[in-house]
Amino acid sequence: MCGRFAITLPDDAMARLFRAQPANDLPPVPNLNVRPTDPIHVVRLGATGRQLCQMRWGFVPHWARALNDGPLLINARAETLAEKPAFRAAARTRRCLIPASWFYEWTGEKGAKQPWKIAATDGAPLALAGLWQDWGEGETRLATCAIVTCAANATLAPIHHRMPVVLGAGDWPLWLGEAGHGAARLMRPAAEARLTPGETDLV
């Protein structure tokens, strides 16, 4: 699962990193506690190439009558997203990258949970695999997204049994649909040495 994350990169640095054209209405950064339903930075493929844009974190299927019509879909399970009606079409044609500086998980019992900050071992920004969907019509039209998750690797399994799919730069073209078919093979746990957890004081 991935229920909170942080983004500290300035907009121009994100645009350079992902070689994407930035939109004018991007969310403010830094944000050390990005929550579900917040507007977040997303890289998607547009008619003129990669675009860095804003989307709502919380995927809304096209058939939903309202934003709160059904469960809040912040994550999409890699093992079933190709079969789920909500995600099936997006898995084929609307994949995206979600920039993050790190993400959070918790251990312990309710009322005494310990938050963990999980970052790249080398301190580099992360690109999380995502799916997106436009919802609504006219002035209510809204771009929404979810983070793709998979089984945790051995490093993170003691903290949580799920983790976001973290994509290396060499995998971005395939995930975004720039490099043909076969993106499903990218939905796997990160290498054991790729991420390092550390205790933090996030509330």
Structural commentary:
There is one protein chain. By secondary structure, the chain is mostly beta strands. The chain is 9% helix and 37% strand. The chain has one domain: hypothetical protein yedk fold (Alpha-Beta Complex). The strands form two sheets. Strands 2, 4, 5, 6, 7, 10, 11 and 12 form an eight-stranded mixed β-sheet that branches. Strands 3-1-8-9-13 form a five-stranded antiparallel β-sheet, with no helix packed on it.
Helices and strands, with pairings:
Blueprint: E1 5-7, H1 11-18, E2 21-22, E3 31-34, E4 39-46, E5 49-57, E6 75-77, H2 88-93, E7 95-100, E8 102-107, E9 114-120, E10 126-135, E11 142-151, E12 162-164, H3 172-176, E13 195-199
Parallel strand pairs: 2-5, 5-11, 6-11
Antiparallel strand pairs: 1-3, 1-8, 4-5, 7-10, 8-9, 9-13, 10-11, 11-12
